[in-house]
Amino acid sequence: MVTAQGNTIECGHLYTRDAVTNVVAMKVESSTIDVQVLRNKVEQKWLSAKLPGSNDPLYPELKSGVRQWMGYLFWEPCQHFDIKDRIKYITNADVTSNWDDVCTEAGFKNLVMHLLRDRLWVEGKPLWEIIVVDESCFKNAVNFDNASWIFFRDHHILSDGWSIFKLLSKLFDDEDDILEKVPRAIFERENGTLWTRFIAQVQFVLKVPFELVDLIIDILANRDTLPTFSECGNLYKRGAVTSIVAMKLESPTLDVQVLRNKVEQKWLSAKLPGSNDLLYPELKSGVRQWMGYLFWKPCQHFDIEDHVKYIKNADVAENWDDVCTEAGFKNLFMHILRDRLWVEGKPLWEMIIVDKSCFKNMENLDNKSWIFFRYHHMMADGWSMFKLWSKLFDEDDILEKVPRPIFHGERTTLWTRFISSVQFYLKMPFEVVDLMLNILANPDTLPTFPGGSCDVKLEMRNGPSLQSLKQLKNDLGVDLQSLLLAGMTASIRQSYQKAGRPPPENIKLFFILPMLGHPDKLQNHLTFCCIFLPIGESDSMKRIQVIASRIQRFKRSGLPLALFLGSRVYGSMPVPLLRRFIVSTPLLFTNLIGPLSTVHCEGKPISSICGISNPPDDGTDRFECGMAFLSHSGTTHLQVIGMSKYFCDNQHPEEYLDRCIQEWEELEIMMPS
After folding, report:
1. Exposed, middle or buried, 657 (CB in 10 Å: 0-12/13-18/19+)?
2. Could you please report the per-residue DSSP string of 125-178?
3. Residue 616 gets which letter from DSSP?
4. Pairing with 206, which of 301, 451, 576, 672 sits 20 to 30 Å away (CA)?
5. How far apart are CA 319 and CA 332, in angstroms?
6. In this protein, which residues make up the domain named O-acyltransferase WSD1 C-terminal (predicted)?
7. In whole numbers, what is the pLDDT of the chain averaged over residues?
8. How are beta strands 349-354 and 308-310 bridged, if at all?
9. CATH architecture label of 427-602+615-670
10. Hey, what CATH topology would domain 2-181 get?
11. This model's pTM is above 0.70
């Protein structure tokens, strides 16, 4: 008897080559096997077997297929079950692999692999099959060695190996005592007296949690079997969770030494209130892995010149001499975001400066300077980084001028606040379950286009003035977030139209919300808002009203707090386990409403700010397409980034942002004058 098993893959691969299929091959010392006799025996011993004292079948799964409902799999009896479809000679089984040399070692192996991997299960049909190879099946009698083969294949969803062995034993001639002759697993030794058995049982139960912890520690300690450090979130690869912010200064020169001194004073030497401990120790630390977890480890030889420098000293391979052109800036932006890799053991932040002194060709100079600041998202969220950067701006009150997120309206009395809090926490578990069911019920992703690669496309441009957007959202009676997402929804609908596909009713989107009580330290203190954009709705006005309603309902629910608390548990997992639970989302949206007035750095006004996060290498984790909206001194900036397979050509990202802005213009026209 020979057994083989396919890969253990999730249920989504039930009808693909990666299905969790098992094959048992039994060699029978006979030149012939009567398949009808085998069918009769299966009918009698398997299909007609009843539960003791009942008329219910003992093995109903053998005459059932699988159906899916709300993300769950259920057995559903087949309406037209025919045993001839389940038990047959290989000549009647549509087996494409050559079985004429099954009696040779290579031929047998090829046939087993074909049945295991290439013979796919049929949707709605039972997940088992018996294929017989005997003398009558051979085209070339020379290959026959007077033995027959029975191949039994099943999907592991049907049962485990011991259940299948007990099932097959009913077909053996000596079935009555075969199970008694098979050794059973013995977990503990028999004890002689009642007292010794009781003591052994108590010891057994008490040791279980410690043995479980010991097993987990052993698994983590044998790190050769775990993902390598570079695989833990692609920390040192192109798919790293890197974010970048580019600031344009209205000055042709920028003194890097002055900036270093300010960083040293405001960032690196900052202390916790009433303590000598550093406020931002991560800025002088690298990352190390131990027991599956990532920890900050202070760098032995930290040099600020490695982290704040002119671009000409930064080993940047991309040409920056045309950074003042739109195409040149975009190329440099993408190079720093995606192609400039983090160095193991070094801090995960960097400030690169481009000013007059860096240009080879002075004709390209437009009397502007650029600061490119990049960091890994494991250091902190965007709000932490904004607070960090506010220390370098000349203005002292910049944080007071930036809007903060509000999750709940104020209650008038203590009693109403108490009642509201009770309702809030009682509803939270049901809201979480409802969200999970909605996510499972809306699995749609962005449409892909042929010829796409794992390259990334980026487009950026200035948007409408912040004042005009605020006026429009007030006229519509919605919040700014809803207005921004209405534009994004229209762009996604356009992508489906370009792909020649009707848009689904909804598509899920995540955007980040900073939590109240955000600490002064560098930290990812945030939660997620998950809503479903109604891309199936063709009416722009109805779409934005639905979006606004869903956002407000989400913010007023317990979901922001529940997801925040869940992220605390999620983030405490070892990295190898963490990687198993990374959730991919089709769309990610980021927005940051900056100060309404111009800010300055080293006395030089900052005229433009843009930034975005790096998508993964293959789109299988984090997000597939991201859009960012940033505002500064009344101006706005839009960016879209995603894998090239989601854009049909180089003009598609431009059209994506064009359609977004067009949607806002159309909504403005729809408003009564």
Report:
1. buried
2. S-SEEEEEE-GGG-S-GGG--S-EEEEEEEETTT--HHHHHHHHHTTSTTHHHH
3. P
4. 576
5. 7
6. 524-652
7. 81
8. parallel
9. 2-Layer Sandwich (3.30)
10. Chloramphenicol Acetyltransferase (3.30.559)
11. no
C-alpha pair distances (Å), 175 with each of 147, 158, 433, 484, 519: 22, 22, 48, 70, 69
Element (H, E) at 511: strand 507-514
Q: How far apart are alpha carbons 569 and 93 in whole angstroms?
A: 50
Cite the residue boundaries of each domain of the chain with CATH code 3.30.559.30: 427-602+615-670
Assign 187 to helix, strand or coil: coil
- Integer Cα distance of 335 and 314 in angstroms: 12
On whether the CB atoms of residues 589 and 627 are closer than 8 A, the answer is yes
DSSP letter assigned to residue 644: G
- The mean pLDDT of 399-417, rounded to a whole number, is 57
Both structure tokens of 494: 């356009």
Tell me the HSE value of 363 on the side-chain side, using a 13 A CA sphere.
Answer: 1
363-367, 450-454, 538-542: range with highest mean pLDDT: 538-542
Question: What phi and psi values does residue 406 have, to the nearest 5 degrees?
Answer: -125, 125
Query: Does pLDDT of 286 surpass 80?
Result: yes
- What does DSSP say about strands 293-298 and 285-290: parallel, antiparallel, or unpaired? antiparallel
The CA-based angle 244-250-256, given to 5 degrees, is 65
For residue 232, pLDDT beyond 50: no
Terminal-to-terminal C-alpha distance of the chain: 82
Place of tokens 């070094």: 346
C-alpha 324/C-alpha 559 separation (Å) is: 44
pLDDT digits (tens, 9 = 90+) for 122-152: 888 999 999 988 887 776 655 567 788 899 9
Contact present, 569 and 563 (Cβ < 8 Å) = no
Q: Pick the closest to residue 391 from 609, 599, 633 (CA basis).
A: 599
Length of the chain: 673
DSSP state of 409: P
Question: Model confidence over 473-497: pLDDT tens digits?
Answer: 999 999 999 999 999 999 999 999 9
Binned at pLDDT 50, 70 and 90, residue 258 comes out as very high
Domain topology for 235-379: Chloramphenicol Acetyltransferase (3.30.559)
Tokens of 290: 């131990």
Phi, psi of 232 (to 5 degrees): -75, 85
DSSP 8-state assignment for residue 15: T
How would residue 390 be classed by pLDDT, with cut points 50, 70 and 90? confident
Written as one string, the DSSP assignment of 522-591 is: S---EEEEEEEE-TT---HHHHHHHHHHHHHHHHHSSHHHHHHHHHHHHHTS-HHHHHHTPPPEEEEEEE
* Helices 652-670/480-498 angle, 10° precision: 130
- Name residue 319's amino acid: N
Distance CA 80, CA 64 (A): 10
Sheet containing 585-593: give its strands across: 456-462, 635-643, 623-632, 585-593, 507-514, 526-533
Among candidate residues 402, 328, 323, 332, the one with its CA nearest the CA of residue 368: 323
Who contacts 496 (Cβ-Cβ below 8 Å, separation ≥6)? 447, 502, 503, 535
Closest by CA to 153, choosing from 122, 124, 112, 100, is: 112
Beta strands in 377-472 (DSSP E): 456-462
| Strand partners for 338 | none
Q: Which residues of 621-643 are buried (b: 16+ CB within 10 A; e: fewer)?
A: bbbbbbbbbbbbbebbbbbbbbb
Q: Is the confidence at residue 346, as pLDDT, over 60?
A: yes
